[in-house]
Amino acid sequence: MTTKPTGDDLHAVFARSDLGGDDRLDLMEFGMVLDSLGLSWTRAEVQDRFERADTNRDGFISLAELRSLLETQGWSEAGVRSARG
Ligand SMILES: [Ca+2]
How many angstroms separate the alpha carbon of residue 2 from the centre of ligand 1? Predict the structure, then answer.
């Protein structure tokens, strides 16, 4: 992949969905991020990805964890821009 990530777009989506403002996402907020990114996963898939993304097992998804997850899903920063349009 040749995409040069700036971090701005993903961080914007992350911050918008982070209702608690604590720089981490619970399961519901995680679902909102997926909606924002145009990823239509089933509830079961969201739960599965959430557990997989939570690599430090604190029950929340950090921006770094979110980014890692999305990269394993073949997602790229550029996708956010086009999905937003
Ligand atoms: Ca975590």
Answer: 27
